[in-house]
Design brief:
The structure holds two protein chains of two kinds.
Chain A (H helix, E strand, L loop, with lengths): L6 H16 L5 H17 L10 H6 L11 H6 L14 E4 L7 E4 L2 H10 L3 H16 L2
Antiparallel strand pairs in A: 1-2
Chain B lengths: L1 E10 L9 E6 L4 E8 L5 H13 L7 H25 L7 E9 L4 E6 L3 E6 L2 E4 L23 E5 L6 E5 L1 H4 L4 H8 L3 H14 L6 E10 L11
Antiparallel strand pairs in B: 1-10, 2-3, 3-4, 4-5, 5-8, 6-7, 6-9, 9-10
Classes of the chains: A mainly alpha, B alpha+beta.
């Protein structure tokens, strides 16, 4: 029997095909066709294959490490970010129905609301502090 | 004619708020899987249940290359679904699951795995681990169904009468040494199923615990409880 035909070699080849794909050294189509050819041969010659996975054979295999590493550092880098991308609303000309001839530039209410929603949380405290200061100064 | 019996158990463990593991036992089709979900509340159990559901409803191919292809396609499809699901979560988080799957036919046996769920074989009074964990040097997962680049690994096995196989989640094999696993696999499977869980719980039970034990028999020694594909 060809030593390359035993199951240990087949399993080593299966692991290697996956490793090469994950490392980007083998395209998926080539890996797929290679695997199919190999497994078709294995199935056709099943009763002639005598070896199986053995502890010695397993120990000889190199550990398979994918290039993907879900480390704590990467998780930290991918953590949800609190961003405050404050964009001043665009001004547009609106016409008041009660003053049809009077046009002026103003801020649409929904834009003001969205602006306030985007402000960082500490501006709330800043605003409260200013209001308190003003109130105390008026006493 | 080859036949088999199956014993299985899962336990929440001592520390976790919910059991995120899932088992698939298609005894009449010769297909079993242990799935370990991760990602926290309402995430890990979703991931493991999604994969378990897909495996439960997989229409099995008969040839070896087709069987490998369909398992790979299924795992990658669930991987994409979980990845998309995680992207829609706010705040964004990592969720997914790991898997060890075994399929037996009258000729070949097939193992597929992702992550650190393991398959052991007890043969001739010796314990052999048939899967290699997808962990790096710092014991962090390098492959996870639901996150990152992914391909499952496969191994083809030839089963023999008298073999016992153990599919075990990391919650089990992290608590027990190989010597203890081998000790219990040498006992009656029904006892092994119960005592492996009990011993892992006594050792700490820091994660969900799941196992499937398979015993392979031939017609000469099989009982009425044995199943064939």
């Amino acid at each position: 029997m060809n030593p390359r035909d035993d199951l240990c070699e087949v399993n080593a080849a299966l692991l290697e095909l996956v490793r090469l794909q994950l490392a980007g050294e083998l395209d998926a189509a080539t890996a797929w066709s290679t695997r199919r050819d190999m497994l078709n041969s294995v199935e056709a010659a099943w009763h002639d294959l005598s070896q199986d996975l053995t502890p010695e054979a397993l120990a000889s295999l190199q550990p398979v490490v994918a290039p993907v590493r879900i480390s704590w550092r990467e998780r930290w880098q991918n953590r949800p970010q609190l961003s405050w991308d404050v964009k001043w609303p665009s001004f547009k000309t609106i016409t008041l129905p009660t003053l049809p001839a009077f046009k002026f530039r103003t801020m649409a209410p929904q834009q003001l609301i969205s602006l306030l929603a985007q402000l960082p949380w500490w501006t709330l405290f800043l605003g409260l502090a200013l209001v308190t200061f003003y109130y105390v100064s008026t006493l | 004619m080859t036949s088999w019996q199956r014993w299985s158990a899962t336990d929440i463990g001592n520390r976790r708020a919910q059991n995120e593991d899932a088992l698939v036992c298609r005894d009449y089709d010769g297909l079993w899987a242990v799935i370990d979900g991760m990602g926290g509340i309402n995430a890990g159990n979703v991931a493991s249940a999604a994969l378990a559901h897909a495996i439960e409803h997989m229409e099995l191919k008969s040839s070896l290359p087709d069987a490998v292809d369909q398992i790979e396609d299924l795992v990658l499809a669930v991987h994409d679904q979980l990845h998309d699901f995680a992207q829609q979560e706010t705040p964004r988080r990592t969720l997914g699951c790991t898997l060890a799957l075994m399929r037996l036919t009258q000729t070949w046996g097939l193992v597929a795995w992702v992550g650190d769920v393991r398959l052991y074989r007890w043969r001739d009074q010796a314990l052999t681990r048939l899967t290699q964990d997808h962990l790096d040097a710092s014991h962090e997962l390098t492959r996870l169904i639901g996150d990152g680049l992914l391909l499952p690994d496969f191994a083809v096995v030839r089963v023999q009468a008298g073999d016992r196989y153990l599919l075990a989640s990391d919650g089990l094999h992290n608590e027990l040494s190989d010597a203890r696993l081998g000790y219990w696999l040498a006992q009656e499977p029904e006892l092994a199923q119960r005592e492996l869980i009990a011993e892992a719980l006594a050792a700490g039970g820091r994660d969900n615990l799941s196992l499937i034990i398979l015993e392979v028999e031939t017609d000469a020694i099989s009982s009425n409880r044995s199943l064939q594909p």
